[in-house]
Amino acid sequence: MISGKFAITIHILTLLHKFPNDFLSSEFIAGSINLNPVLVRKEIANLKAHHIVESKEGKNGGTKLAVNAAELTLKQIFEMTFESIGLGFAKNQPNPDCPVGKNINQHLEALYSEMNQKVSAQLEGISLEDFSNQF
Amino acid sequence: MISGKFAITIHILTLLHKFPNDFLSSEFIAGSINLNPVLVRKEIANLKAHHIVESKEGKNGGTKLAVNAAELTLKQIFEMTFESIGLGFAKNQPNPDCPVGKNINQHLEALYSEMNQKVSAQLEGISLEDFSNQF
DNA sequence: AAATTTGTAACATATTTTATTACAGTATGA
DNA sequence: TCATACTGTAATAAAATATGTTACAAATTT
């Protein structure tokens, strides 16, 4: 779940923000995303590990936001689901006997690191509340 | 080849820039990237389609740069290999009967579009020559 | 006690990426 | 002119990754 993780997580959080007084079930959330409920629960497990949401087991259980949506930034969500942005690396270890191969990944990393800073700055300026209130 | 395309292409171009007077074979290039030569030729086909390199078939054939490395920007390479950056979408069509599901992709696209602008601005300021001269 | 839900593991399927094989076509140069 | 060494490309295979499903124990409500 590399490409969908961020999108699914922000979808979940937007729903939780829209229903602040309810514990939403994974099945309900899955119905909005059109995704298997087990995968929703897996993303929720990640959110729980970061103390962003709390869940209640058992009948009428579900999940709700555990933080202030105005204080949760998209940057935090990004970091919980993506780690870092970039344009990728060649899969195999490049040839260490070639001056280019030996250093390419290091230079790509530097480039991507700068990209991350720019993207992070953008995402830091947007709260979950901001995002959710667009709907 | 989503994640590796940019990295492989810039690796190819850096090598071509380092040997401006030679036609480099796909096998030589593949040896530096540690990649199958057929995949190198595929990326070269893409570069040829954009008139960035020229190839010579036959014995002693290979590929060389066809543009000025000082004028080729990483943004152009990005656009030839990645199209756009972003944090992904959920794979399935979200529920159109849910106000959140109905609009989430549109809002994500707007967010990613802004990300792209920032990243493009960064990459536009770096030429292949700049990148290659780091080595 | 019955019903409903989370949490999680195990497994299955689908998709995407990467690698390989094969070979026709082209240029070089002995 | 013939052997050699390349490109170009298609077809296929293998590997890796992402997504989906099933199953069921544990928890909680009514």
Give a verbal description of the structure.
Two copies of one chain form a homodimer. By secondary structure, chain A is mainly alpha-helical. Chain A has one domain (5-133): Orthogonal Bundle (Arc Repressor Mutant, subunit A). Chain A is 56% helix and 6% strand. The first copy, chain A, is built from six helices and two strands. The first copy, chain A, has a two-stranded antiparallel sheet with strand order 1-2. In chain A, strand 1 and strand 2 (62-65) form a beta hairpin. The mean pLDDT of chain A is 94.
Question: CATH topology of chain A, what is it called?
Answer: Arc Repressor Mutant, subunit A
Q: What order do the strands of the largest sheet of chain A run in, or round the barrel if closed?
A: 1-2
The radius of gyration over CA of chain A amounts to 18 Å
DSSP helical segment count of chain A: 6
Helix content of chain A: 55-70%
Protein name (chains A, B): Transcriptional regulator
GO molecular function, one term (chains A, B): DNA-binding transcription factor activity
Pfam family, one (chains A, B): Rrf2
Organism (chains A, B): Flavobacterium crocinum
What would you say about this model in short?
The structure is a homodimer of 135-residue chains. Chain A is elongated, with a radius of gyration of 18 Å. The first copy, chain A, has a single domain (5-133), classed as Orthogonal Bundle (Arc Repressor Mutant, subunit A).
